[in-house]
Amino acid sequence: MTPRTRLTAQERHVQLVAAALQAFAEGGYAGTTTDQVARLAGVSQPYVVRLFGSKQELFLATMRYAGDRIEAKWRAAAAGEASLAALGRAYEDLLAERELLVVLLHGYAAAGDPVIGDAVRDCYGRLYDVVRELTGATPEEIREFFAMGMLITVLGAMRVLGPDPVPLPPWATELLATFPRG
Questions:
Q1: Positive or negative, the Cα torsion across 18, 22, 23, 27?
Q2: 65 closest CA partner among 21, 19, 126, 105
Q3: Nearest CA to 25 among 152, 125, 159?
Q4: Fewer CB under 10 Å: which end of the chain, C or N?
Q5: Helix segments in 29-83, DSSP class H
Q6: Is 157 left (phi over 0), alpha (psi -120 to 50) or beta?
Q7: Percent of the chain having pLDDT more than 90?
Q8: What pTM was computed for the model?
Q9: CA neighbor of 108 nearest in space, from 12, 177, 28
């Protein structure tokens, strides 16, 4: 029998955020419980609360992870080519991580909560600053970049774009025929 190895606190944190990403993507902030996250991670609900303090703090950690993941993807892309097109292609690659984008949408929807709203605005602002830093783009160019990013996010969440798309309705076929490719 192989002895069980204990995860470090950091490894357990990563495991719980991964489970939270899945759970919050499926149920949103209001529709997800710490018990659901615990079951996905294979730990007890009190353990989740002990590590994060509350469902809100767990959600905030999940949102930070999503923002950090996007930033890391953009920085890696910019190391090869510091352009909006390169960052856009990198963002499209994230469609394979659908839960990440869906959690962002749930974060925007939950922004009426003052704490979540502050965190979501901070995340969005940080990503804006990263795009400006990496590309030197104008505010107008960044606005267009983020507008296209939101369209990609919504289409990915609806599974119109991404690794497992649904059969496309006529409106989606028409929209995608005009879709700019970087």
A1: positive
A2: 21
A3: 159
A4: N
A5: 34-41, 45-52, 55-80
A6: alpha
A7: 76
A8: 0.89
A9: 28
Q: How far apart are CA 46 and CA 49, in angstroms?
A: 5
**Residue 95 gets which letter from DSSP?**
G
| DSSP SS3 for 181 | coil
Type of residue at 117: G
Long-range pairs, 153-157, Cβ under 8 A, ≥24: 153/101, 153/104, 153/105, 154/105, 156/95, 156/98, 156/101, 157/98, 157/101, 157/102, 157/105
Q: How far apart are CA 117 and CA 43, in angstroms?
A: 29
Distance, in Å, from the CA atom of 7 to the CA atom of 149, rounded to the nearest integer, reads 36
Structure tokens given for 53: 């303090």
- Furthest-apart CA pair in the chain: how many Å? 61
| CA distance linking residue 35 with residue 45, whole number of Å | 5
Amino acid, res. 101: L
Q: Per residue in 3-51, pLDDT tens?
A: 666 778 788 889 999 999 999 999 999 999 999 999 999 999 999 999 9
Tens digits of per-residue pLDDT, 166-182? 888 899 888 888 876 65
